[in-house]
């Protein structure tokens, strides 16, 4: 028998001593769970919190002050490794499990976990996996507009019987670097001549073609930024073929033409891990880039942000509680599922001009101009 959608035999907040949290990937999605983690730990300080994450993203949560333990799994598991993980989880005897992910593997880990209380999102064909199912966003008939991803995750905490106002949801949490990591980043910046200058960190990657602003637009912005006195532009991105190709195009363009601007441009594309990236951004005057993992890393620092959005909506994924200017174009096809561009030209993001982004950047870079919220 249930009451308000939850079994009467569910443990109350005071009974929760061991809690497992699952979000396997990726950068932005993991970071946006951290306010919920902080909220949970501050409301239940005596509970032990364990976070389950995939190997490439472990440094997003290792060292998080609100977590007691991190379980790291390979991105691709063999069946026997998956079974071993399930047995490990079952042996822990968790009082509650919060599935922030909702993907196939996370769902089955939840189902087989033997946790006393399993909480997840109300996802089609997966309702039987959870004891409590929380809407992801607002359901039809509910009042209000869109729900930010951070608020969605916090709602899983609320489902445990923990009451709080939306205003109480804390900022993003990204672990600080170790002393050695901070020294290594400082050495990199010193070698590049970027310690004394004012730096703008520009993320040239995108994650997929739907969020790719295009090398022509990025080059136009770099040229404008690099022309500002005393400013250096730091390019960041992954070691992927797409990002390295974009890097080559941008650097070549900056070295040709009437003015060689390469002395004002530093490329760290493919050279930074997740902690390095945060440290580089935290030392900068401004971060610029698309809705992406690095944008959310930037939101975990005090560095201002200029972000351009294409197929996704700021209402869902804006930099959480960060000083930011967001640029977007109103189009009937937004948002989309990023499977097929109905206009075939990705105009939702490509129509944003370098001049528009540069104007937003100037709000944070020119002292006489007051930043907009």
Total count of domains? 2
The major beta sheet can be summarized as: 6 strands, parallel
Helix content estimate: 25-40%
Radius of gyration: 22 Å
Strand content: 15-25%
Can you say what the CATH homologous superfamily of the largest domain is? Glycogen Phosphorylase B
At CATH level 3, the topology of the largest domain is Rossmann fold
The low-pLDDT segments are: 1-8, 139-143, 368-373
Counted beta strands: 14
> What class do helices, strands and sheet pairing give?
alpha/beta
Tertiary shape = globular
What is the mean predicted local confidence, pLDDT?
91
Specify the CATH architecture of the largest domain: 3-Layer(aba) Sandwich
Strands of the biggest beta sheet: in what spatial order? 5-4-3-6-7-8
Can you identify the CATH class of the largest domain? Alpha Beta
Provide the succession of SSEs.
EEEHHEEHEHEEHHEHEHEHEHEHEHH
Can you describe what's shown?
The chain is an alpha/beta fold and 373 residues long. The chain has two domains: 167 residues, Rossmann fold; 186 residues, Rossmann fold. 33% of the residues lie in helices and 16% in strands. The strands form three sheets. Strands 5-4-3-6-7-8 form a six-stranded parallel beta sheet, sandwiched between helices. Helix 7 crosses helix 8. It starts with a strand and ends in an 8-residue tail after the last helix.
